[in-house]
Amino acid sequence: MPLINRVRSCRRAVAAAAVATAVITPLLASSTASAAPRAVTLPPVHADFDYQIGEPYTPPAGVQVVSRDHTAAPAAGLYNICYVNAFQAQPGAENEWGDLLLRDANGDIVYDDGWGEAVLDIRTDAKRQRIAAKVNSWIDTCASKGFNAVEPDNLDTFDRFDLISEANAKAFVKLLSQHAHDKGLAIAQKNTANFSTEHTETGLDFAIAEECGEWDECGDYTEGFGDNVIVIEYKEKYFKETCAGFGDRLSVVLRDVDVTTPGNSAYVRKTC
């Protein structure tokens, strides 16, 4: 499992003519027996990608695909992916979630201590529906701003907290996938390599994989998504290895772990 499926607390393209269009069959709404296929646009494969979920800035020359937080505006003329923290609460936002926060046997809120984020309780259908309503409102914002896709983060929370099951995660992300497709947005599988061949259960369209080179998982993503995989590495060694193995097929970028902006002393961005 990647160490970095984040950066959460500080992070959060109008498609180019070359962008490929894929027909995605929407998930069935609970109130209908069937739904007509809806066309959504996937990111162009092997495109120059920039990860800007910390703070937006003018994309470097040649960039075709950008991921930005849902609070930001999309980058004009590019394929834009909209980041939402879907499975955990932003630091300090616990009061916004009330009884939807996960609690342990002692009644204490369960936190992702690495990022100071409370985990959301997706264990029952009733709570999943309520949490999805809030996250889907962010997806509505993404659509209204002109984003092309959505990136719901922390899908792998179940893999780090035993109180949540894999089935819980699949059921919840399927609600988000349905809503994204209803809004004409593609939806990314963020990390969680073992879900890559399980599209029927998740409804996810392409992958955004952090550190798949470091964890030797890039092939797991391509097994399910082909070349529709965007890779972010945070260490030079694994970036070079990923470029050597997948740089002729996938979008691969090296970024600093805090995804800072140009001019910051920590800023790093390289492509294959």
Provide the residue-averaged pLDDT. 89
**Beta-strand segment tally:** 13
Number of helices: 5
What share of residues are in beta strands?
Answer: 15-25%
- Rg, please? 17 Å
Oligomer: single chain
Biggest sheet, strands in spatial order? Answer: 3-4-5-8-9-10-11-12-13
Kindly report how far apart the N and C termini lie: 24 Å
Helix content: 10-25%
Structural class: alpha/beta
Query: Which sheet architecture does the biggest sheet show?
Result: 9 strands, mixed
Description:
The longest helix is centred in the middle third of the chain and has 21 residues. Strands 3-4-5-8-9-10-11-12-13 form a nine-stranded mixed β-sheet. The chain has a two-stranded antiparallel sheet with strand order 1-2. With 272 residues, the protein is α/β, with parallel strands linked by helices. The two termini are 24 Å apart. The chain is built from five helices and 13 strands. Helix 1 runs parallel beside helix 2. It is globular.
